[in-house]
Amino acid sequence: MGLTYIEGVVAGPTGRRRTLEFLVDSGAMYSLLPHKDWKSIRLAPKRSMVFTLADGTKIERRISECHMALPQGEGHTPVILGEPGDEALLGVVTLENLGLVLNPFNRTLQPMRMLLV
């Protein structure tokens, strides 16, 4: 099992931007911005959510929204506002919003294939 990292640029409501190295986590629902980074782009909490970690521990984190640009696409996405010590994660909601999927065989982000019914 390998790890996949990707560089992305996040922007807040004032247009301030930060470039981050995200761990692509196909098991995470939301993307997470480290504390210093979301503060730097001046995000404000909009609500709180409780998350269950892999070991069953429940944690509460605040949620906001930002613009995210990856080499494969860009768009608006909800993000967890990390606390000191939290690392940048790219979750499946952001991937879906940007029309991307993680290919587990070669650990790359690829365009989502749409099924027409």
Please tell me about this protein's structure:
- The chain has 117 residues and is mostly beta strands.
- It has a single domain (5-111), classed as Cathepsin D, subunit A, domain 1.
- It has helices at 35-40, 92-97, and strands at residues 5-11, 17-24, 31-33, 47-52, 58-70, 73-81, 89-90, 100-103, 108-111.
- Strands 1, 2, 3, 4, 5, 6 and 7 form a seven-stranded mixed β-sheet that branches.
- The relative contact order is 0.25.
Number of helices: 2
The biggest beta sheet is recorded as:
7 strands, mixed
- In the CATH hierarchy, what is the class? Mainly Beta
Number of strands: 9
Order of helices and strands: EEEHEEEEHEE
The helix content is 10-25%
Distance between the termini: 34 Å
Assign the CATH architecture: Beta Barrel
- In CATH, the homologous superfamily goes by the name Acid Proteases
